[in-house]
Amino acid sequence: MKLSPEEILIRWVNYHLSRSNCGRRISNFTTDIKDSVAYVHLLHQIAPPDAGVTTLPEHVSLMSETVPSVPVYWSSVFLSPPGWRQAKSMLKRVDLSLSTYTLRLSRKDLRILIGLLTGHADLNRHLTLIKVRSDPLCPLCQQEEETAFHLLARCDAISLTRLNHLGLYRIEYNDLYNIRWSFLLKLAKASGRFL
Ligand SMILES: [Zn+2]
Predict the structure, then answer these.
(1) Is 24 left (phi over 0), alpha (psi -120 to 50) or beta?
(2) Is the pTM of this model over 0.70?
């Protein structure tokens, strides 16, 4: 049996949805993911356990027996909980094209992107926090702790790479969310820190 790439992806999503016991399955990438519920459960399944990704807002909505609109849903996911500073710096508004883009990534790229969004990337600051490394400094520039923000926005050692990919030497914190995730992912990979 030969499956199209989309059918394979739907199988992959449904496999993770079945593990989440959420009762949802999808048969397409349009109407079935419109309310983001399946998407949130998928993210919850594939995010690293320590990334702080929860499905809590859905439980809140079930208790109130209302189906929140997509904007309300996403604001409850991303904007209400305290913390998640990193994710909030890159996601300020509802954009379903981001869901579609994210679902089409390879598992490796998705892992990198989620790491960048949540701050739980395989970079020295996070690895030091979880006691895998002992030095949080950026190995490329040795100037600052290596956070996702440092790598994407500040690190001087890759400022030319940043200029080539984004047209900018550096990125201000408040401008980060204006940059497409696909560009951020390309920059992160071009840095050589996610080989
Ligand atoms: Zn650096």
Answers:
(1) beta
(2) no
